[in-house]
Here is the input.
Amino acid sequence: MDAFRALLALPVPWVFVLGYLVGAGLEWLLLPRNAWMPLVGTAGIALFVIGALIAGWGWMIFHRKGTTRVPGEASTTLVTNGPYRVTRNPMYVGLTIAYIGEAGIQRQILPLATLVLVLAYVNWVVIPVEEKRLREVFGPAYDAYRAKVRRWL
Here is the structure.
């Protein structure tokens, strides 16, 4: 078991949920509740739906190809179609957009600060473990894909 594997014990979607809840809790404790910018809620709904669709699309492709959706486990297929043509991590991109949308729906600002911590964890802990495993399994094919498609956008 890798040293990083222990850090991956909590599924990444839960990292996003817990990060949001910490930010929302801080907001509840520290800031007065107000209904700032009513259109933010409407835009938040749109962002949440778009993010959920992107994350779900990425997850569904992995499911259909029969490859793992667990960080650090060896994939059976190198997925490069659908949203994976634009980003190597559409599930994380989608979760990020949905997270921002939820903050808009709730008209909360502090969860956006904790999002920075969530993204730092995903970018510098989770993704490197996934990329190492992909390199081990797919070698030059993964390197070629990595050279063509950005990590995020």
Remarks:
- Residues 110-138 form the longest helix (29 residues).
- The radius of gyration is 17 Å.
- The chain has a mean pLDDT of 91.
- The chain has six helices and no strands.
